[in-house]
């Protein structure tokens, strides 16, 4: 997914509090002041490659961005945020019911991502591109439900680790001096918030690793179960949040305190989780954009 603040000559001061950019779909008729915030080309369910959800892939999103820029190239150099959250892998898991097939897909996704990142810099002319890494996928309720929400799925988490290691290599090769690209580490804060002192659900944050770093107490006040259990939970494993039967009766339960949950549904974090995670990298984005 591609979010762009092209042509918003993001001043260091505003980097921390950028208003939500207008969605590409709503661009017509948007007032100039809103358009000046940049544009959001992201499409739900999309991936670097075609996911089979019939959504615009990353390359098609950048095509639209490029077409939109024609005639008004970002003279100050634009800023783009590229978020890859695992839809490419989810599509494979859904199709083959096999996490290892998704692992095998990592190099293909990386080749596609590398090409699109290169293109954003070399062809579209972005001055700064922020790229997120993958959160611990095995801790999403999609995986933890099978484990009674007691721990994360180590195989899926190993997949996130592998994707993230590959992404580091891609960026190191594309941009050895870290001039254009910032790797925004979502994985560490998600893991830190999910993990706690009594349970060690995460494969990538074991006890000795934890004790070797200064213990930053989790700012996410919830019990272990709520970290791994969604606020909105379908009755059936094959169901989904928001599902209704023919009579319009809800086929899901909703929690009372979404802000106490890390995940909203089987794959999406809550607003509260995102706010807590974003807090951890505000300074890094600020520093990166002011250089
Ligand atoms: C991305 O989407 C475009 C337009 O639908 C398609 O032509 C292209 O093959 C897709 N690319 C990948 C890598 O899936
Ligand atoms: C998916 O695979 C698991 C074991 O790997 C199996 O328990 C489950 O029933 C399978 N689900 C479907 C829908 O085939
Ligand atoms: C989850 O709980 C059910 C019912 O208590 C139990 O039968 C099952 O073995 C548990 N599964 C795991 C992976 O802990
Ligand atoms: C670039 O950033 C990575 C972390 O994303 C870091 O490991 C590496 O040392 C940095 N390289 C330079 C030249 O600063
Ligand atoms: C735990 O973390 C330590 C320190 O990072 C590492 O050396 C060790 O291999 C890890 N152990 C496991 C089982 O992941």
From TrEMBL:
InterPro entries: GDSL
Top-level taxon of origin: Eukaryota
Region entry Disordered, spans: 196-223
Biased composition (Low complexity): 202-211
Keywords assigned: Hydrolase, Lipid metabolism, Signal
Gene Ontology annotations of biological process type: lipid metabolic process
Pfam family, one: Lipase_GDSL
GO MF assignments: hydrolase activity, acting on ester bonds
Signal peptide: 1-15
PANTHER family, sorted: GDSL ESTERASE_LIPASE, OSJNBB0059K02.9 PROTEIN
Protein name: SGNH hydrolase-type esterase domain-containing protein
Taxonomic source organism: Zizania palustris
